[in-house]
Design brief:
Elements: E1 8-9, H1 11-19, E2 25-28, H2 32-35, E3 44-45, H3 51-58, E4 66-69, H4 76-85, E5 91-94, H5 97-103, H6 114-127, E6 131-132, H7 134-142, E7 147-151, H8 155-160, E8 167-168, H9 174-181, E9 188-192, H10 197-208, E10 215-218, H11 221-227, H12 248-259, E11 262-264, H13 266-274, E12 280-284, H14 288-293, E13 300-301, H15 304-309, H16 311-314, E14 321-325, H17 330-341, E15 345-349, H18 385-396, H19 398-405
Parallel strand pairs: 1-5, 2-3, 2-4, 4-5, 6-10, 7-8, 7-9, 9-10, 11-15, 12-13, 12-14, 14-15
Helix pairs in contact: 6-10, 6-19, 11-18, 12-17
């Protein structure tokens, strides 16, 4: 006997909840490759066959409103049954599924991490984030100009392929480590990622925090570099040390303040955690090595730069709260400043590292079946140039798609 379908909610009511910033987890039950073909802006991908693995971590409040959908594959009833068996008591289906969302005239966004990428494009448009084309950066390298290239991707991405001579400084580490890589204010800092989002956010982070150096993004990242037919380095392991430029910590806190982020002491954080009516995500945004050496109990590891990029994965309950921790505060402040601008109620915990720390590596979930995984157009070392160019064209169109969609509520300080 087939399990019963959960109660239905209309696309219009889901859209209304998103616009009013009510808590809601709009979950796409398809595999990632199918999800990337099109989904609502704030939908989060939770494949039906991974609910048992991921739901407790990604949906910490058992009575959070959950809305499930697929594109006609028949995944909803069984997924709802699994969630109810795990104790989730407020599970509904999107009436008519993905087809009804599109049929109502609502936007579908392609790719993964779409709303973070759309936000990055909005930041560049609003702040006119400076950038240089690949040919210009290659010319600076060739003439041995006074430049430092900071790669803000994950260390594993960096070691796979990187701009020659660049140094690995993952996104949230920039304000903490830029002065170690470029101690002379006369040095021009060039920030790169694989495509656009992380380099835009990284460049603007340094500018917002008041770094004395000139800072520019490598326009279109390693994709643009490859399309311009410049060579990449492989297997590099250069990492930036820790050194704060003058005023960095205070400036980072001011950036967070201007974005609406609030700092909490231990008692205030406990009160936030005790509020059973709201979802609370707690993330430690330091490096994995720092986390393993000692972290505050209850905080999940998520490096700050990746958290901004992958917020739909880390925190699928739109409208929830986020509390960040970092023993040096700078990374938490900068990360929280971006999350707040993306519409999150974001907080930073003051202190907490004086005693009773837990040790051990970050939690790592088993990876999905590669057959169901979406291959990013910037991933690996042998990507079709036409696919890379199509990806860039898609990113450039995201601001206009945000305007048509009308649900985002982003702002840029």
């Amino acid at each position: 006997m087939n399990p019963p379908m959960p109660p239905a909610i209309s696309p219009a009511d889901v859209r209304r909840a998103l616009k009013l910033r009510e808590e809601i987890a709009l979950l796409d039950l398809r595999h990632e490759a199918a999800f990337a073909t099109g989904h609502p802006l704030f939908a989060a991908n939770l494949a039906a066959d991974r609910i048992a693995l991921e739901a407790s971590i990604r949906l910490p409040r058992r009575d959070v409103p959950i809305v499930l959908y697929d594109a006609g594959e028949g995944l909803v009833a069984q997924a709802a049954q699994r969630l109810v068996a795990m104790g989730y008591g407020n599970v509904r289906q999107l009436h008519g599924g993905l087809q009804a969302w599109a049929g109502a005239g609502y936007e579908l966004f392609q790719d993964v991490n779409s709303y973070a990428k759309a936000f990055g494009e909005l930041v560049e448009q609003r702040r006119h984030t400076p950038s240089l084309a690949a040919d210009d950066v290659a010319a600076l390298i060739a003439e041995d100009a006074d430049v430092a290239i900071l790669d803000v991707r994950r260390p594993d991405e960096y070691s796979t392929m990187n701009i020659p001579g660049s140094v690995s400084v993952p996104g949230a580490e920039l304000v903490l480590r830029a002065a170690a890589v470029a101690p002379d204010p006369a040095t021009t800092i060039i920030v790169n990622c694989a495509g656009r989002t992380r380099s835009i956010i990284g460049t603007q982070s340094l500018i917002n925090a008041g770094v004395p150096n000139k800072v520019v993004a490598l326009r279109n990242g390693t994709i643009g570099w490859t399309l311009a037919q410049h060579g990449l380095e492989h297997g590099a392991d250069r990492r930036g040390g820790i050194a704060l430029f003058e005023g960095a910590a205070g400036n980072a806190r001011d950036v967070a303040y201007r974005a609406g982020v609030r700092h909490l002491d231990a008692g205030e954080a406990r009160a936030l955690q005790a509020d059973a009516r709201r979802t609370l995500y707690r993330f430690d945004v330091r490096t994995a090595e720092e986390y393993a050496a000692g972290h505050i109990a209850g905080f999940r590891h998520y490096p700050g730069g990746q958290l901004v990029q992958e917020i739909d994965i880390a925190a699928p309950v739109r409208g929830g709260r986020i509390l960040l921790t970092d023993d040096k505060s700078v990374r938490a402040d900068m990360t929280a400043s971006w999350l707040a601008q993306m519409g999150w109620e974001a907080y930073v915990l003051d202190g907490g590292y004086e005693r009773d720390l837990e040790t051990g590596p970050p939690l790592e979930l088993p990876k999905p079946d590669p057959a169901h995984r979406y291959r990013r157009p910037y991933e690996g070392t042998n990507v079709d140039p036409a696919a890379m160019q199509a990806y860039l064209d898609w990113e450039y169109g995201l601001v206009e798609q945000l305007r048509r969609d009308g649900t985002h509520g982003f702002y840029v300080i």
